[in-house]
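User: Fold both of these, please.

Assistant: Here is the first one.
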Amino acid sequence: MTSPLMSAPLFPLNALVCPGGRLPLRIFEQRYLDMVSECMRHDSGFVVLMLIPQTQRPEGGDQHPFYHTGTMVKVVDFGQGEHALKITVEGQERVRVVAAERQEDGLWIGQLEPADEEAYVAIPERYEDLANVLKALVQHPMVEALNLAIDFADCRQVGWRLTELLPLENSQKQHLLEMTDPVYRLQRISDQLLQMMQ
């Protein structure tokens, strides 16, 4: 028996967050202020999805402007900024958008199914240098401020945090998010780091 689809608001961005990651956001559009207010009132989440670059969107048809795999997030911190609500969201689980509909106010609502779960895998010795790269990245004040709890021995967590923090192209980040093999994700990150250094 298949599980029923979940329904949740969608928040397309030029950024991505993976399970266990945190993302600071400035919310100023009314539809998203209403969405955040509703989510906080009901202790529910919304889905952060990466926008597809304009040049890569198929022509014609009523295409969604975002990739179909994203992360369900919950608000873990909020405050009032100048002209905007400042929130921090934390990734809960990866989800796939099976269908999406745009409301009159422009807010997308998606029908979702959970993406494949990844099992814990201890980081292989050959990728321990990636854990060290991550340890260096999290010392940056902006990353430090997110208060991330990271298990540096967990392939998934090291791969997800590097996916979020490394200066990769959006399509590369999306590809890494969609992978379901945490060791292969580290291999791809390792390859991309080598390319960046050459």
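And the second sequence with its predicted structure:
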Amino acid sequence: MLAPPVLPIDPDALDTPAATAALARAAALIRAGRLVAFPTETVYGLGADALNADAVRRIFAAKGRPSFNPVIAHVADVDDARALVTAWPDAADRLAAAFWPGPLTLVLPKRAHVPDALTAGLPAVALRVPAHPVARALVRAAGGPIAAPSANRYTELSPTTAAHVVRALGARVDLVLDGGPTAVGIESTVVDLTGPARGDGPPRLLRPGTLARARLEAALGTELAAAPRADGDAPRLAPGMVARHYAPRAAVWAFDEGERRAAAIRLARWRAEHPTGRAGALLLAPWIGEGPPDVVEVLPADPDGYARRLYAALHALDEDGCAVALVERPPATPPWHGVHDRLERAAA
């Protein structure tokens, strides 16, 4: 697969001539309807002009993404977000004040000029003000909202480095801005505010992330309702709502801490049937006992640290040729909700 141009850019030195030139080149491509991959604090995004329907459709073609799965528009600030929606309820003010810029996406009723290609034909748009300096600088340089789902093929692992983007998409992307590894590691939390915008329903948590539900509810002053169910090809209100997603090439075997012995037995049986196959594991503590996996990644025992390393570790297992990935589930407590969501969808 042909590789796209990759421009290194230091998030802490965006006023250098090299960074200025890289941002100018990337912004010109966005304005011309092309695709640019760039770092956000969550994962690398595949960016295009959010108000150019043809450019947005190029995202879907590059990813192999079905049209029923909408794309998040990244904006510079609250004023730019309000320019894309018909209503801005108090709940939006509360969440934006508490968590923007940051890994939170809000779904609100869209204005007519927001293309249906961006929103899966639904009358609501998903919006986020990213915190990553490169993402923010690119949005400002492009002069408008940037549509940017994760820069990978549909349902596959999201990228947390520029190298992941190049391996996944190759020349399907016109340029990659390499700002180093991402800091959050999994996709943004998504909250649906279409009910409060209409005055006839509660805010709903559509996709968990690293922002704990308790923090969101404290900012809102009310509880979050559950996400609506969506099956088949029905349009989704937000990305990340399909059953299988965020998946490595390796088959994911998830198990709880007390199931290590059962996981070891399953691995031994698999090896008897696949004597040349390689197996990897993501664990919360070192493997103890016989028959260890070929590759073992011990992940941090805190939710933020685990999330930061999760996709990178799964990418490493794929790059090592592992056919199966044993993943030890973290504790089933609220701070781990976003991680559990990703593991469940990866193993689906």
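The chain is about 35% helix and 20% strand.
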